[in-house]
Specification:
The structure is a homodimer. Helices cover about 40% and strands about 15% of the residues of chain A. Chain A has a 6-stranded parallel beta sheet with strand order 2-1-3-4-5-11, covered by helices on one side. In chain A, strands 7-6-8-9 form a 4-stranded parallel beta sheet. A two-stranded antiparallel sheet of chain A has the order 10-12. In chain A, helix 6 links the parallel strand 3 and strand 4. The longest helix of chain A is centred in the last third of the chain and has 18 residues. Chains A and B meet through helix 4, helix 5, strand 2 and helix 10 of A and helix 4, helix 5, strand 2 and helix 10 of B. Chain B binds a DNA duplex (16 and 16 nucleotides) through helix 2 and helix 4.
Chain lengths: ~325, ~325
DNA sequence: CTGTTAGCGCGTTCAA
DNA sequence: TTGAACGCGCTAACAG
């Protein structure tokens, strides 16, 4: 391994002081003569000089990096398209602003021992949580003690250094429900994962509000881990016990599509016999037939916005807004 | 913002030298008395001391970080489940080994200006490439000049500091083709994206080899950006010109499912009238009906292995193997 | 077992 | 316009 050239090496080659080289590197052009700069730039290229960021950061007392912490109980933590889009959005903005993104996926029971809470300091943090409500609260309290700006996705927390970015699940769910009740639906079954995320609660609340206002009812079907098999078995079970509702309202598209598949395979017609709706639309809904009525999550935008707010807060020391909610677009389809 | 406690602060509070504190932190227990250590640990917790990694790294001349560079022309670069799984696998192993993963997604035309090639130094690099064959080769040559171990996903390059990790696309494609020709198929249409990745070439080669050995033929259908619409229109076009083949062999599951959808909507029976196969299976193939015959990519394992090999090479200075190929599992389905 | 010294590479300060 | 000295926080090497 060849030793990396340092600022001093470049300076020596050019016969100037290291400060002059530093001035060139940092664009303080007026401090340096034109041909001196020329000579220095040539030497930099020649020697393959690269800054030592550790030294720069030590000097500047900044890490120039943003941590992204994903609490999830599966090892393939980017498999969830929602998370993947948030990370892409954040990563793009961080890169653009010259920060580097440090990605860490962790089981929720290991959350408290993350190096991002320990020795790995960053200038800001973005996190998606999981686990029980108690675990999440404890974790949020821990994050708030770090003394750096923190953005939480689909969560809220009242603290000057914490900003929650969410999508407006309540309104979107209500909009879908409005559409359904206008078509005469009164008996809704809501497909929900066992884990009661705040977002899921919002969706159920929005659905229920609208439905009950017209004298309808919403029954929640527990679909376990929201996987294909778990969902189909929960739905099958529910049909056996309670018969078909007017609509299966999906807490997300995965559950909606598993249900759609089950119903079609049983010869049940959609939307004639029963309607199905989804939520948090992703690419693969294109493969559903009939097209799913669903809601398009602004996940990528949430990630980007997390980056924007984080960078602003890291530079100003505080968040302008501590709770941001993004609108969700309803996508029409023939499934309802 | 409260100033972070330093090693020296801790030392002062405990009335010892900073070296003693450092010894405690780094587990050099035999160098320190038991009650001294006790006192120091207490002070560390009390002051909320956290190491300054920049200083540690400057001192150690190591970055303790791994860069992950994803060249892709869409901003939502983790949308591809293959990439997402590779990143998860790498991230998990990096975290486990105490390295931090720096994630950067970049358009291929910006590749050369990535900070990971410039000032952002890491101890190792993992990359997925895109762009034309020339662009990719130029980029690989650039990576090889960095002087750090580099792992390339689904690529190969002959250089002591570069290791290619691939899945065995050729064999898997050949296996699928064997199955098809055994069932009597001779006239195959291969669904391929316009971009000719090495992996796609391998798949076509494996398919062709087997097919031609029995006197069959493989025709390639250009599906453009491999999206839902592009694929359907290419397939529709091809059917108009050449009629139905015995099998549509999908270069990946997205194209296979778009084709499946199109055929079903036209009342064409699968597999009676025509067979369809996929490749690089991901979760949502569960929603296909009939179940798709496809190949299960070991993407997560490739990412993990990239981490393993990278860490070994970073520590030993060289790769043990410079070309690694992982087997692919064929997943049976009724679509063929 | 504990303390001292020195220096990693950079940027700021102050003087020339 | 440039140079020298200093210190960011940490640890290896050596001394006590």
């Amino acid at each position: 391994m060849i030793k990396q050239a340092t600022l001093k090496d470049v300076a020596k080659v050019c016969g100037v002081s290291s400060m002059t080289v530093s001035n060139v590197l940092n664009g303080r052009d007026k401090e340096v003569g034109a041909k001196t700069r020329e000579r220095i730039l040539y030497a930099i290229a020649e020697l393959g000089y690269r800054q030592n960021l550790a030294a720069k950061r030590l000097r500047a007392q900044k890490t120039s990096s943003i941590g992204m912490l994903i609490l999830d109980d599966v090892s393939d933590f980017l498999n969830d398209p929602f998370i993947a889009q948030v990370v892409s959005g954040l990563s793009n903005h961080a890169t653009e602003k010259g920060y580097n993104l440090i990605l860490q996926g962790l089981r929720s029971d290991m959350a408290m021992s993350s190096s991002l809470l320990g020795n790995l300091r960053t200038d800001g943090l973005c996190a998606t949580l999981s686990g029980t409500s108690d675990q999440r609260r404890a974790f949020k309290e821990r994050l708030a003690t770090l003394g750096i700006p923190v953005v939480l996705i689909q969560e809220e927390f009242d603290h000057p250094l914490v900003c929650g970015i969410r999508q407006d699940d309540y309104t979107a769910a209500a909009e879908i429900a409005e559409y359904l009740v206008a078509k005469g639906a009164r008996n809704l079954h809501y497909l929900s994962p066992s884990a009661q995320w705040p977002a899921i609660k919002e969706r159920i609340a929005g659905t229920t509000k609208v439905c009950e206002a017209v004298g309808g009812s919403v029954k929640v079907i527990d679909c376990g881990d929201e996987g294909f098999k778990a969902t189909q078995s929960a739905v099958s079970n529910s049909i056996g016990l309670h018969g078909l509702p007017d609509v299966f309202v999906g807490g997300n598209d995965r559950m909606a599509m598993a249900t759609l598949r089950l119903l079609i395979d049983r010869g049940i017609r959609i939307p004639e016999d029963v309607c199905v709706t989804g939520f948090n639309s992703f690419d693969f809904v294109a493969f559903a037939q009939p097209k799913l009525l669903t809601a398009q999550s602004p996940a990528h935008e949430m990630g980007r916005l997390a980056g924007v707010e984080l960078v602003k807060a890291m530079e100003s020391g505080e968040f302008q807004d501590r709770a941001i909610s993004l609108p969700i677009t309803i996508v029409r389809g023939q499934s309802a």
